[in-house]
TrEMBL record:
SUPFAM superfamilies, A to Z: Calcium ATPase, transduction domain A, Calcium ATPase, transmembrane domain M, HAD-like, Metal cation-transporting ATPase, ATP-binding domain N
Domain named P-type ATPase N-terminal: residues: 50-104
Transmembrane residue ranges: 303-326, 357-376, 924-944, 974-996, 1008-1031, 1043-1066, 1072-1097
Domain P-type ATPase A: from-to ranges: 137-200
A GO CC annotation given for this chain: endoplasmic reticulum membrane
Keywords, ordered alphabetically: ATP-binding, Magnesium, Membrane, Metal-binding, Nucleotide-binding, Translocase, Transmembrane, Transmembrane helix
Catalytic reaction equation(s): ATP + H2O + phospholipidSide 1 = ADP + phosphate + phospholipidSide 2
Annotated family: Belongs to the cation transport ATPase (P-type) (TC 3.A.3) family. Type IV subfamily.
Enzyme Commission number: 7.6.2.1
PANTHER family according to UniProt: PHOSPHOLIPID-TRANSPORTING ATPASE IH (PTHR24092:SF33), PROBABLE PHOSPHOLIPID-TRANSPORTING ATPASE (PTHR24092)
GO molecular-function terms, A-Z: ATP binding; ATP hydrolysis activity; ATPase-coupled intramembrane lipid transporter activity; magnesium ion binding
Catalytic residue positions: 422 (4-aspartylphosphate intermediate)
Protein name: Phospholipid-transporting ATPase
Taxonomic lineage of the native organism: Eukaryota, Metazoa, Chordata, Craniata, Vertebrata
Length: 1138
């Protein structure tokens, strides 16, 4: 009893201790406790509560063997079109309908089967990938030695041994490493694309456990948050139990967590404990699909379907009403050849009318093209390969080409009106080069060297002596600050061309790696100025000063960079025992915290560098007394031990520590424009797109980049909507002043356009550019008492050719895109970026494109499309987007057109058969029309058609304007195609009818029957719609000829076989010899040729007249291309040798 009482007291003590460590964290509902090695804590520790966690099995597949059929069918019949055809098929089974259930069931079965096979194959590939991952071998420490097991058998708490170049099987917390300092190097290329080596750390209390037996003897528990998908956030705490001692609590953060999918590098082996397994790993939680985006074409297609559904219902209602009106007379009610049964006479009229209505719905249901959906899906899926196969979009440096993450938005690439782009890494290379630094007004340029001495490029160039006699305190502190305030790693070049190299001419041959290119550029710049960062060893940072002396600084704390603070700091201890806090960051985050230093001189130089387009950082320092240091340590330790609100507490601690700075100076780094970035933006402007640059950089730097990239021209009138201006004037006054400016320009635009047309004025005179910063945007988006500024801002930006948004937070980027999307024009937007801070706007835009850049692959992974460089956007939109839209627009309109041609004769036929629901076409023709006879030519057209050449589209970006705003799927175009289909249907039916009327068609005087009449109409129909597509084709290849003429030949051969053989499985032979008898008649041949010609003539005349009287820019380009081709052929023909 005494022992039990002591254990209870110990548990109470432990809980009080934990409570003291985490004030305000009484309820840990969102945490878990992990027992390392599956071992119970030692006696006297907290009570052992075993918890159940999922195994390490990864499941990315959607179906299983047992649920594939029901689940896939359920998902497919959730689509309205599929469900509609299922209802029609069931109606045909239930009631007596004029057509066989096969006519609806077979096309529906074909569509469902093709889709199921495609989805099943994709899921089978996912199953294979899952099995290869789940069966990977893994080493687990069991009973003091490493045992080999399979990955899916791992459990939370198992201690895993991972060797160099192996991939982490689950999310692990690092316990120890083969390195003495307890660190390991990791690449996360498979997670975020960053190929640089990142450093991860073991806590001091576990890094000494470096063998299997030592790890087995470790008694510890880990308390951490429940799984969540943020790759860069982890909050936890490890409690290490030692003999007769209280447990030692150490904070755990993202620097201790090794993520599944990352790879161990430059470290022989590590020991780590499994913390999240299986579908709870961060990588698995990021599998969740993005919200579904729908293209404008898909929305138009659904609207057209609703119209045709209304037409279908109208046809059925009209025929039902007319049937009963025609049969009102008793002699027509029961003709001699169709007496009704007694049951039919006794049925109520309402039920009979409803049954007839359903029968007419079945008869006319083919006006809704069921095969259009599967054809569109196949077109999108197969068409997306043209992007991935494009060799011009392959980057040799990356060794990768463009990627398509979703094929549902291919045609949306041809509808873009607004382009939102990031600056750093998207417009620029994100390949930083150190240009200069400024210390107390003196400017240092690495290349300005005279007689071995560095020259200062200040207003009066002074020669800085490199000898100790010319030693300047602030300059040395500045150089040391940049050598110490970073997270750069040093990698030794151990082997080069098979030769082991450690030193070159007495100096180490090493290079720097970091996740931030800015940091590498700054450290390399310091090396060129005489201060070399050597290494971080045993928590000591070593630098080689300009006197070739090695200086050692103990690294005490790192205050990591974040996008909110926009700065980072380190606390170090010099060899003399002095505590120093070095900080670097954006000028806006440093200057307000400076209490001394030559602020005005440094600020002037920063502004000058920003105007020149250079990226600037300010550097400051603060000396800490021992008491200051102890206070800072306490703040940081309490914040890091917190399990809840750790980020907020760290931010508060950083804010309290990073103050009272002495300004040392500033740096300038150049980020060059990407190749052909300016040409790409200029082409997008000519294509009618408005380009917005959204960046976190300061205004001057971003503006200089905009001028260099030709977003702004020298003649562009810049309108500023910035915090500086709103401090001078109220936001209300600034907004309405800008509004008056653009409205005045709009009112003048009429006579200005006349002057431009007369050549008296330049187009650039109408050019406006807007610059807005993040602080002002926040105020604009909030509706104040003085009015709603959103509409005013939209009105101003709408009249600007380009907009620059600077000092933008990631969320603000998404807010800008959302604001434009929701404006009254509802324009199609595209967002392009390369970093994690661009993901929000990429997901928000209609089309998101990720750059495979140096800031990781988060943007590429979350985008709809990924390209290696910004320059590839030009071809992606102006060529691929243009083609995709033209092709799918023709596909959609053509499908509706050919189905109107198909069904309207059936509707007309009812007026001549007493509305008896007699089908005009044979069952085989009804079934195969959309599946076989007319589907393949339009599918091939939608894949390979090029109405103008690629070179023409690249040379003349203005052709893009012809297809924007969904121009080919507007209602007038839709009505034209529908009316053309109705005209052709009338020609088919009445042309055949009048030719049949009182005419002998066979040599023996025999008249053709109704099946011959229907076959004649169907033959004219198939040939007309196929030749119509041939007339619309501009780009002919051998495969076009094969498919188009092959489809017609297939129809003829099928008809000959279908009507030339008595098929034993059919209970009727109504088509026997019908097709051959029709072809044996000369008038039938004449009628076929004549009706095809009459049907195609209006469309041909319309095209000729439109091209002659009011040609579009695209049609002019086609004429120029044909003319040039004929000239070249004629020239080559004349120049042939005899």
């Amino acid at each position: 009893q005494v022992l039990s009482f002591c254990r209870i007291l110990c548990n109470i003590y432990i809980y009080i201790y934990i409570y003291m460590c985490c004030v305000g964290e009484e309820n840990w509902l969102d945490s878990r406790t992990v027992y390392i090695g599956q071992k119970e804590p030692p006696p006297g520790a907290a009570a052992y509560i075993p918890q159940r966690y999922p195994d390490n099995r990864i499941v990315s597949s959607k179906y299983t063997f047992w649920n594939f059929i029901p689940k896939n069918l359920f998902e497919q019949f959730r689509r309205i079109a599929n469900f509609y055809f299922l209802v029609i098929f069931l109606v045909q089974l239930i009631i007596d309908t004029p057509t066989s259930p096969v006519t609806s069931g077979l096309p529906l079965f074909f569509v469902i089967t093709v889709t199921a096979i495609k989805q099943g194959y994709e899921d089978w590939l996912r199953h294979k990938a899952d099995c290869s991952i789940n069966e990977c071998p893994v080493d687990v420490v069991q009973q003091g030695k490493a045992a080999r097991t399979q990955s899916h058998k791992l459990r939370v708490g198992d201690v895993v041994v991972v060797k160099e170049d192996e991939t982490f099987p689950c999310d692990l917390v690092l316990l120890s490493s083969s390195r003495e300092d307890g660190t390991c190097y990791v690449t996360t290329a498979s997670l975020d694309g960053e190929s640089s080596h990142k450093t991860y750390y073991a806590v001091p209390d576990t890094k000494a456990f470096r063998t299997d037996r030592e790890v087995e003897s470790l008694h510890a528990t880990i308390e951490c948050e429940q799984p969540q998908p943020d790759l860069y956030k982890f909050v936890g705490r490890i409690n290490v139990y030692k003999d007769t001692e209280e447990p030692v609590a150490r904070p755990l953060g993202s620097e201790n967590l090794l993520l599944r999918g990352a790879t161990l590098k430059n470290t022989h082996h590590i020991y780590a404990v499994a913390i999240y397994t299986g579908m709870e790993t961060k990588m698995a939680l990021n599998y969740q699909s993005k919200s579904q985006k729908r293209s404008a074409v898909e929305k138009s297609m659904n609207a057209f379907l609703i119209v045709y559904l209304c037409i279908l219902i109208s046809k059925a209602v009209i025929n039902t009403v007319l049937k009963y009106a025609w049969q009102w007379s008793p002699d027509r009610d029961e003709p001699w050849y169709n007496h009704r049964t007694e049951n039919e006479r006794q049925r109520p009229v309402v039920i009979r009318a409803f049954t007839d209505f359903l029968a007419f719905m079945v008869l006319f249901n083919y006006i809704i093209p069921v095969s259009m959906y599967v054809t569109v899906e196949m077109q999108k899926f197969l068409g997306s390969y043209f992007i991935t196969w494009d060799e011009e979009m392959f980057d040799e440096e990356l060794g990768e080409g463009a990627q398509v993450n979703t094929s549902d938005l291919n045609e949306e690439l041809g509808q873009v009106e607004y382009v939102f782009t990031d600056k750093t890494g998207t417009l620029t290379e994100n390949n930083m080069e150190f240009i200069e630094c400024c210390v107390d007004g003196n400017v240092y340029v690495p290349h300005a060297i005279c007689n071995g001495q560095i020259l200062s490029a200040a207003s009066s160039i002074d020669m800085i002596d490199s000898s100790p006699g010319g030693y300047r305190r602030h300059e040395d502190l500045f150089f040391r600050a940049l050598c110490l305030c970073h997270t750069v790693q040093v990698k030794e070049e151990e082997t080069v061309d098979g030769i082991k190299r450690g030193f070159h001419q007495g100096r180490p041959t090493s290079f720097y790696i970091s996740s931030s290119p800015d940091e590498v550029a700054l450290v390399e710049g310091m090396k060129r100025l005489g201060y070399t960062y050597l290494r971080l060893k045993d928590n000591y940072m070593e630098i080689l000063n300009k006197d070739d002396e090695i200086e050692r600084f103990e690294l005490l704390h790192v205050l990591n960079f974040d996008s909110v603070r926009r700065r980072m700091s380190v606390i170090v201890k010099s060899s003399s025992g002095e505590y120093l806090l070095f900080c670097k960051g954006a000028d806006s985050s440093i200057f307000p915290r400076v209490v001394s230093g030559k602020v005005e001189q440094v600020k002037a130089r920063v502004e000058q560098n920003a105007v020149e387009g250079l990226r600037t950082l300010c550097v400051a320092f603060r000396r800490l007394s021992p008491d200051d240091y102890q206070e800072a340590c306490l703040l940081l330790t309490q914040a890091k031990l917190a399990l809840q609100d750790r980020e907020q507490r760290l931010a508060q601690a950083y804010d309290a520590i990073e103050r009272d700075f002495v300004l040392l100076g500033a740096t300038a780094v150049e980020d060059r424009l990407q190749e052909k970035a300016a040409d790409t933006i200029e082409s997008l402007h000519k294509a009618g797109m408005k380009v917005w640059v959204l960046t976190g950089d300061k205004m001057e730097t971003a503006a200089a980049t905009c001028y260099a990239s030709k977003l702004f021209r020298r003649s562009t009138q810049i309108l500023e909507l910035t915090k500086k201006r709103t401090e001078e004037q109220s936001l209300h006054d600034v907004m309405f002043e800008l509004s008056r400016t653009v409205l005045r320009q709009r009112s003048m635009s009429g006579w200005v356009q006349e002057l431009i047309g007369g050549g008296l004025l330049s187009v650039d005179c109408l050019d406006y550019g807007l610059i807005i910063d993040g602080a002002t945007l926040t105020a604009v988006l909030k509706s104040g008492p003085e009015g709603n500024y959103r509409e005013v801002f939209l009105e101003v930006s709408r009249n600007c050719s380009a907009v620059l948004c600077c000092r933008m937070a990631p969320l603000q980027k998404a807010q800008i895109v959302k604001l434009i999307k929701a404006s009254k024009e509802h324009p199609i937007t595209l967002a392009i970026g390369d970093g994690a801070n661009d993901v929000s706007m990429i997901l928000e835009a209609h089309v998101g494109i990720g750059i495979m850049g140096k800031e990781g692959r988060q943007a590429a992974r979350n985008s709809d499309y990924a390209i290696p460089k910004f320059k590839h956007l030009k071809k992606m939109l102006l060529v691929h987007g243009h083609y995709y839209y033209i092709r799918i627009a023709e596909l959609v309109q053509y499908f509706f057109y050919k189905n109107v041609c198909f069904i309207f004769p059936q509707f007309l036929f009812q007026f001549f058969c007493g509305f008896s629901q007699q089908p005009l076409y044979d069952t085989a023709y009804l079934t195969l029309y959309n599946i076989s006879f007319t589907s393949l030519p339009i599918l091939l057209y939608s894949l390979v058609e090029q109405h103008v050449s690629m070179d023409t589209l690249r040379r003349d970006p203005s052709l893009y304007k012809d297809i924007t705003k969904n121009s080919l799927l507007r209602w007038p175009v839709f009505l034209y195609w529908t009316c053309l289909g109705l005209f052709d249907a009338v020609v088919f039916f009445f042309g055949a009818y009048f030719l049949f009327d009182n005419t002998t068609f066979t040599s023996n005087g025999q008249m053709f029957g109704n099946w011959t009449f229907g076959t004649l109409v169907f033959t004219v129909l198939v040939f007309t719609v196929t030749i119509k597509l041939a007339l619309d084709t501009h780009h002919w290849t051998w495969i076009n000829h094969f498919v188009i003429w092959g489809s017609l030949l297939f129809y003829v051969i099928f008809s000959l076989l279908w009507g030339g053989i008595i098929w034993p499985f059919l209970n009727y032979q109504r088509m026997y010899y019908v097709f051959m008898q029709m072809l044996s008649s000369g008038p039938a041949w004449l009628s076929i040729i004549l009706l095809i010609t009459i049907s195609l003539l209006p469309d041909i005349i319309k095209k000729v007249l439109c091209r002659a009287m009011c040609p579009t820019p695209t049609e002019r380009a086609q004429v120029r291309l044909h003319t040039l081709t004929h000239i070249q052929i004629h020239t080559h023909g004349c120049c042939k040798p005899d």
